[in-house]
Amino acid sequence: MGGDFVFDFPCIMYVLLSSRYALRGWHGLPFGLHDRKSGRNLLLDAESFHALSLCDGSTPILFPLVPAPLIDRVKSHIREGLAQICEPGTALPDDQAYRKTESRFTDLVQWSITGKYNLPCRHCYMDAPKAKYGELSTRQCLEIVDQFHAANVGRVALTGGEPLVRRDFWQIVDALIEKGIVLSQLYTNGVLLTDQTLAEFERRALRPTMVMSFDGIGSHDWVRGVAGAEDKAVEAISRAVQAGFPVSIETALYKGNLRRLKATYALLKELGIISWKVSRMMSTGAWARKGDQMDAPRQALFDAYLELGAHHHRDGAPFELALGGLYYGPKGSSLWMSPFNKFSGQADAAKQTACQSCRLHPYIMADGRLLPCIPMTGSQVEQDMPRLTETTLSRGLRGSAYFDRIDTRLDQVFVNNRGCRSCAHRFKCGGGCRAAAMTAGTDYFGADPDACFFFRNGYDEKLARKLKSSPASPMEIARARHAASLSKAPAAFIGSQIDRSQPPASERRTASAMAFQDRRRFGLACSLSQILCWRWRRCEASRGVMGNAMPLYLAG
């Protein structure tokens, strides 16, 4: 019966899940693996999930007790480092055992832990110097951490305001650590990012990406409203890089810093950052009241993006670069794409969600409200959002005005927007960004004027000519972006960013969709093998036999 299978492992194995991983599940997505080191939640195909479910240290893995394909998958996971052979009866720790939540799947939660700020920035979307949104108490913040744990949130990005101004900052960080939630990113202006602060992170074995604001050489002081802010920002970037922390930079563009992009590029390259995100000032918060006259003209902005994207491509992509929706290039790769061109171009795109990012990366405001994304702060959407001081994250993600927004489909945008409905590019851009549409003065279903300008003026073709190459598919970009982290990932991973509640994705998924297709389901394997394992244990206990007696018992 088993003669057709030749194994290079013991006939009977007891296998334990690696201490780095834990089995998790979510509403509608029951098969998941949590990477406790990176904080990433990874979706599995059913066969691999069932194989890893057998890696509990006490279940004997042998043929025909366990189906041969499932044994092969267990062996594959052992080779990949997801599990290891152990002594019989080795207990799997409780925090690694399977835990399913009724919450929707999330890849990362962005959490503003304060509305307070220590610089009077001219473009602050939160009106932070006035602390319009305040901040929750320590007790309320710790309750939200408990909600993260209950929802199987794997990683969190802390933002503000300036998160380091909170006196209980380390208490919140320690609560995240206690619950096994990884602090993935810290958004900061760098003023309080001292050697002592970095040492506190290192003492806790934390090395989050420091996402710092830097608005360009010769412009940063004006944008931040304080003389000397630029020097302090450069010092903070250098300090963090030298200490071994990954540093990502975000720059807000306006008339004054547009012409300094290349000089800023050279500085950031020299400093050794890992990524740079450049985008226009958005008409929210403080900038909405007085910044219109300083906005960069759209054509000048796009032409500057075009030149800088070409320079980055020729320069070997020394860091990841995102230029609005016009250009994205992963670090160290010759691949590139235009994020504006985010759907398939085919009619079936109409059933896709308008924004996949907000489905996977919910934002929690400083006052505890759940919001689809940061740029929607202060918009009409804000008023209807659930507060986590009154409900839970799990409930808020599933059944509320929040879910109605993040589940918006392209066909809903087209029904409510005559201009998009008749546009030849509608199945490529999907009307653009919902937040950008609102801040441009239209409603939630309006058109993003930057996306319109991109396609109507042929910037997709201009960029291809400038770079002398064709754009990569979102799948290719995703593979390049995650090459280092996924180089040893098992074939079972179908990604951390696929939502089964969506219709089947087209070949050109958005870059946020991970690059693995779901494998065929193996639904009965686990339950059948558990029944067989129970029968085998009873047989072993009553007869005291193993090995060759097992096939005879099961066959008879």
Automatic annotation (TrEMBL):
Q: Which organism is it from?
A: Thiorhodovibrio frisius
Keywords, comma-separated and alphabetical: Iron, Iron-sulfur, Metal-binding, S-adenosyl-L-methionine
A GO molecular function assigned to this protein is: catalytic activity
What is this protein identified as? Answer: Radical SAM additional 4Fe4S-binding domain protein
Family matches, as Pfam families: Radical_SAM
By its UniProt entry, which PANTHER family does this protein fall under? PEPTIDE BIOSYNTHESIS PROTEIN YYDG-RELATED, RADICAL SAM DOMAIN PROTEIN
Q: Name the cofactor(s).
A: [4Fe-4S] cluster
Task: List the residue ranges forming a coiled coil, or say none.
Answer: none
Q: Which domain of life is it from?
A: Bacteria
NCBIfam families tied to this protein? rSAM_more_4Fe4S
Instruction: Give all residue intervals belonging to the Radical SAM core domain.
Output: 101-318
